[in-house]
Design the sequence.
DNA sequence: TATTGTTATACTCTATAACTATA
DNA sequence: TATAGTTATAGAGTATAACAATA
């Protein structure tokens, strides 16, 4: 028997890999929904709030959330009503409103991220080397994911 | 300087890893929504349809979709109206209705999965060894994700 | 009594189209 | 005229509560 010089590890069937990734994404989504609900937010409200690392125009938020701009109005309205975000005028263009997170809003984002229980448990199942490998693999895919 | 015998690879900060995984999950979600829309379905309709590998009671579908049972009625109604799924009586319990995918429904599921363009592109960025490593890592996390 | 599926209700998200105020 | 944000509208997803049929 001729051993292959550098044995190619069995590449899993694409369907199996896609299924695994779907399980991971599904768990992340359920975690996020449950965490947001625990903080009194819908998943879209929490998702928008999580984008507010800096003041963002409504239009940019719509692009980041991959939804129509008209939806952003209502979502920001509800966040504003809960004191988690607010609108401010753009100094350079009076048509634009920039949305910013309040301190309470930023604290809520932190709590939601801390409440991703299944994902945190899953990462705890990996040792440091495995975590590093996972990170490297996803980062390698990232340009293709975003492009 | 004392070199560590077996140098631990730098484990990335948990926040960075969570962020990477969020980018991956986000891309999968956008892919799925776009693919479902291309087939004339909402993401929930496509998600339910994808679960129908065997006849499933409404109640089980609600559990799989992590939503209330009352929602399943409407989603199945719309799939049934499009000829992609149908209800059949359960032979052992007359309270139960089992939902099954029609051949056209199964074909639609196949097309949706094939249209996950960004994810497929991302996997193409990995070589076979990397794919195998990714699969092994996610499978190692799986019990924690599902538990 | 408990469970399955459904209906009614109210709220949120969603895209489309039309509107306003700026540019 | 083009763009940013809003409003109005209709369809879909969502949880809650109440209901009929069945276990």
Sequence:
């Amino acid at each position: 028997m001729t051993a292959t010089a550098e044995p190619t590890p069995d590449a899993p069937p694409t369907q199996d890999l896609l299924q695994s990734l779907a399980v991971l994404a599904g768990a992340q989504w359920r975690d996020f929904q449950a965490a947001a609900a625990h903080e009194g937010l819908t998943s879209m409200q929490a998702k928008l709030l999580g984008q507010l690392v800096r003041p963002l125009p409504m239009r940019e938020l719509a692009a980041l959330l991959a939804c129509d701009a008209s939806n952003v109005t209502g979502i920001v309205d509800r966040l504003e009503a809960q004191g988690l975000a607010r609108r401010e005028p753009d100094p350079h263009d009076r048509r634009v409103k920039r949305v910013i997170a309040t301190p309470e809003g930023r604290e809520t984002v932190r709590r939601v991220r801390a409440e991703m229980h299944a994902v945190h448990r899953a990462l705890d199942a990996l040792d440091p080397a495995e975590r590093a490998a996972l990170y490297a693999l996803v980062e390698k895919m990232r340009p293709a994911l975003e492009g």
